[in-house]
Design brief:
Elements: E1 5-9, E2 17-20, E3 30-38, E4 45-52, E5 59-65, E6 68-73, E7 76-81, E8 90-97, E9 102-107, E10 110-111, E11 115-116, E12 127-131, E13 150-158, H1 164-171, E14 188-191, E15 194-198
Antiparallel strand pairs: 1-13, 1-15, 2-12, 2-14, 3-8, 3-13, 4-5, 4-12, 5-6, 6-7, 8-9, 9-10, 9-11
GO biological process, one term: innate immune response
Domain Pentraxin (PTX): 3-202
Cofactor: Ca(2+)
């Protein structure tokens, strides 16, 4: 149980990562991914990487610079410009629905203007899901200068788009619906220099 714990990625740049195991029975037509990160990196870094054999950036949450997030679905991305962080925890949720191609992005419990992305696309189910590295091939092909360094916690993946209430609940660490990946019951494997520690503060 990772309740009130974090993954600390200690080195910069780093070859470390965490493999997540999700129970994916079928391809995704909708999904929401949420996580909380704490870092002082100003270089590009990957937060959540979901690759299939056909597409290495099937789902990717990537931060190319301090004031920008990129959200990829099926190799295409939209950019969300954000205020430069105050060196504090940042909670992000990104959701997507195939039918409309609507991509939602929430930062610290607040929605950004919605954007269009990959309408009609289907996200493959046989996936390598990694924290801390960006995959350029299935389960590998890392560029160390896109690695994450810092602290990650509260990682979730749902096979639905969350309602605004639930998006806010995720930010506030309240009760959430059952998920494919849930922080409190995460099935994971650490590869390299990553340490599980209690959270220093809420």
């Amino acid at each position: 149980d990772l309740y009130r714990k974090v993954f600390v990625f200690r080195k910069d740049p780093s070859d470390a990562y965490v493999v997540l195991r999700a129970r994916l029975e079928q391809p995704l037509h909708n999904f929401t991914v949420c996580l909380r990160s704490y870092t002082d990196l100003s270089r590009p870094h990957s937060l959540f990487s979901y690759a299939t054999k056909a597409q290495d950036n099937e789902i990717l949450l990537f931060k190319p610079k301090a004031e920008e997030y990129r959200f990829y679905v099926g190799g295409k991305f939209v950019t969300f410009r954000v205020p430069e962080g105050r060196r504090d925890w940042e909670h992000v949720c990104a959701s997507w629905e195939s039918a409309t191609g609507i991509a939602e992005f929430w930062l610290n419990g607040k929605p950004w203007p919605r954007k269009g992305l990959q309408r009609g696309y289907t996200v493959g189910a046989t996936a390598a899901i990694l924290l801390g590295q960006e995959q350029d091939s299935f389960g590998g092909g890392f560029d160390l200068y896109n690695s994450f360094s810092g602290e990650l916690t509260d990682v979730y993946l749902w096979d639905t788009g969350l309602s605004p209430d639930k998006m806010r609940a995720a930010f506030l660490s309240l009760r959430l619906p059952p998920a494919l990946l849930a922080w409190k019951s995460l099935s994971y494997e650490v590869k390299g220099d990553v340490v599980v520690k209690p959270r220093l503060r809420e």
